[in-house]
TrEMBL record:
This is Aldo-keto reductase IolS. Residues 16-307 form the NADP-dependent oxidoreductase domain. GO terms for molecular function: oxidoreductase activity. It holds the Pfam family Aldo_ket_red. GO terms for cellular component: cytoplasm. Its EC number is 1.1.1.-. Keywords: Oxidoreductase.
Amino acid sequence: MSSFFQRLNAVNAPSIGLGCMNLSHGYGSIVPESAALRALDEAFDMGYRHFDTATLYGATANEKVVGRALDGKRHQLFLASKCGMAMDPESGKRVIDGRPETLRKQCEASLARLRTDHLDLYYLHRLDRQVPIEESVGALGRLVEEGKIGGVGLSEVSALTLRGAVTEYPIAAVQSEYSLWTRNPEIALIDACREVGAALVAFSPLGRGFLTGAIQDPSRLEEGDMRRNMPRFSAENYPHNLQLFEHFAALAQALSVTPGQLALAWLKAKGGDIIPIPGTRSADHMRENLAAETLHLDVTSLSQLNAMMMPDQVAGARYNEAQQADIDTEEF
């Protein structure tokens, strides 16, 4: 068993984690601190033990609120954060920097914000194309040896980059967008993860809300919501994608589960080495998502789901050109 799963098991973590990003980043207005603290407290109380944040989120605000909420509970949970991508305080722009000295500095700042002396997992948030992956990973490996992080992770990387990284230091987990309507990891990354013994941590497993049925009209999303700039949510593409959702929702109804729970059950059926980390601002949705852990799909339902929302059926790319330029994953 990998150290990643040993650490999860040590805190009795469910096989579904919590992505904390959208409390502070990416989806319009940020959640007031008091409400964010309350949501994270409730998440812990209902059983979540794997919490995922990053230096980037909310320009460090997310790490601060997660650190405050989980203070005093550190030994009871699995805590993951990310480095190598941050907001420049002067320009307000996102900067990718994978230089060893930057990663060390960001790690030490993350530890302070998260009120802990170590992270269970620390991801390189994005590949810096100006820095060999081996250099970035080597720097993170030294942080493992110093006890500051428990394992090295990568985010939004290709199978090729992963294979290069493990020549320098073992990779505990790779984080990638994976859901019924975003199957890019199936091109090569899942196989590569299994080859090198890394877990796949699936972010946006609910299709950025699409697979819950909550988004009927993307034009009504808040200003500043990243989905307003994503091709799949555009006025041209979304009506087509909603038609795909109708078949999916009908199957969920037939199985007496919510669409979101069905989406998570499909992911979990892909293997025990795939860990979804849905994010939500709502305690009710957190509870609904966690309940999907006990769902098991029969062969017929799984076969039906596998045939839904295939890459050639979904309208629009997952990222716009600017967003796509920052990532290293395989594309259909």
